[in-house]
Amino acid sequence: RNCDWSSDVCSSDLNYKPEPNWTINSSSFIGKSSADSTSSTRIYSNLFSTLQLNPRMWVMAGWDWGMQDNSSVQWHDFMVQYRYAFLYNKLFSNLRYEYLTDPSSLFRPLMPIKKHQLHMISINVDYIPLKKMMLRAEANYLLARDPIIGINTPFVQNQLSFSIIGSIQLDYKK
After folding, report:
1. 53-66 burial by CB neighbour count: b if 16+ within 10 A, else e?
2. What digits encode the pLDDT tens for the residues 136-157?
3. What is the pTM of this model?
4. How far apart are CA 122 and CA 144, in angstroms?
5. Fewer CB within 10 Å: C terminus or N terminus of the chain?
6. Contact partners, residue 48, CB within 8 Å, separation at least 6
7. DSSP string spanning 111-122?
8. Nearest residue to 33 (alpha-carbon basis) of 45, 23, 43
9. How many CA within 13 A on the CB side of residue 62?
10. In angstroms, rounded to a whole number, what is the distance separating the alpha carbons of residues 154 and 132?
11. 168 vs 139: CA distance, rounded Å
12. Burial, 36: exposed, middle or buried (Cβ in 10 Å; 0-12, 13-18, 19+)?
């Protein structure tokens, strides 16, 4: 548990390992969404489990729930993920499915969706060439009940979006 009552923030994180290859984690947060006077009170909870099937394969499932200001502004997110290690601690691939319902578009305010419900599928490849550096290539597919973005392009057509991205992550910790 970590509470800072001077800034009205409290969080907790619990881990349980019923078996050496199985982890269950629960974390929660209550506090202000930002430090300014317009901030809102946010309550957030996350529950997920990771199971290592063998030295190269993992599966993960999780559920997020949150509420802001009052019970009328809530979101839910469910995800499942499969991870495979091609090279020990060097090359990984993840296949992930996520379902998000965010009726107030709290997390994606730029997307004008009435009853924000998204199905998201992504696949990525992570390569760790150095201890403190990771390269990622990722492809995402989004499907929504309502139009995601009000434009039509080859990659965004009403309820469907597809993207390919790359990123570099550097770790500066000692």
Report:
1. eeeeebebebebeb
2. 888 888 777 666 555 555 545 5
3. 0.74
4. 15
5. C
6. 24, 25, 60, 61, 62, 63, 79
7. S--TT-EEEEEE
8. 43
9. 22
10. 36
11. 15
12. exposed
Structure tokens at 127: 């390569």
The token pair that represents 78 in the structure block: 């469910």
Cα–Cα dist 89/24, whole Å: 22
Q: Which two tokens mark 165?
A: 């991205």
Rounded Cα distance between 126 and 117, Å, is 28
Residue entry with tokens 């990722």: 138
Residue type, 56: R
In angstroms, the CA 73 to CA 91 distance is 40
The secondary structure of 49-67 as a DSSP string is EEEEEETTEEEEEEEEEEE
Give me the count of residues in the chain: 174
